[in-house]
Design goal:
The chain is mainly α. It has helices at about 1-15, 20-40, 45-65, 70-75, 80-85, 90-105, 105-120, 125-150, 160-180, 185-215.
């Protein structure tokens, strides 16, 4: 646990050095929602009806922006090879990176979601359900992103390929995420969303570790 904690703090320090990256994610998240009223018109009822889908699409696209920084810097400077030889299993290394990736990519979006909700004329109940659904569903998006980044880590311009790979996996998350806000049985959709996140978090470190080992070998 000492080695894992040290690695976790290292990854967090490295991530926080690029503080502008988090601001970029938040601005992108808000801008995606802000331009929608210009496209669909000022109808408040229409905006409120499509707002949950817009929030989830904006969150998905914003989280894609940080995928290329998940493993590629360590791969390019040789740190990834050293981490493979460390006492800590590679899957635990990926767990640490995954936690930090969620903290710096998803948490700022969740904090900024009330602003986007106001722009899209969401009601108070829908806003709270949006925040809860993002808390439950963004770990799955982060986990799928980690697998995509691991598969493409050794590919030149792999950051352009990873979103294509993980988009099909993310569709169920978007469906249940939107349904947890709009459906009459939102609690059932949230349970499915939580189950997807738990399953993705349980399997993605091993899948990503296998992909990185194959790429490095």
């Amino acid at each position: 646990m000492t080695a894992f904690r040290a690695l976790l703090f290292r990854e967090l320090r490295l991530a926080l050095r690029g503080g502008g990256d988090m601001l970029t994610l938040v601005l992108f998240f808000v801008i995606v929602g802000a331009v929608v009223p210009f496209a669909v018109g000022p109808d408040r009822e229409l905006l409120a009806r499509i707002a949950p889908g817009i929030v989830w699409i904006a969150a998905f696209l914003a989280m894609l922006l940080g995928l290329d920084r998940l493993f590629r810097p360590d791969h390019e400077d040789g740190s990834l090879i050293l981490l493979r030889q460390a006492e800590l299993p590679l899957s635990m290394v990926i767990v640490a990176k995954l936690i930090v990736h969620w903290l710096v990519s998803a948490v700022p979006l969740i904090i900024a979601s009330p602003l986007l909700a106001v722009l899209l004329s969401m009601e108070g109940d829908a806003l709270w359900r949006t925040i809860v659904s993002l808390l439950l569903g963004t770990p799955a998006l982060a986990a799928f992103g980690a697998v995509g980044a691991a598969v493409t880590v050794s590919i030149r311009r792999g950051g352009l390929i990873a979103p294509i790979l993980i988009a099909p996996l993310s569709i169920p998350v978007l469906i249940f995420g939107t349904g947890s806000i709009t459906a009459t049985q939102s609690s059932a959709a949230m349970l499915f969303l939580a189950a997807l996140s738990l399953m993705a978090l349980a399997l993605s470190p091993f899948a990503a570790a296998l992909a990185i080992s194959s790429a490095e070998d």
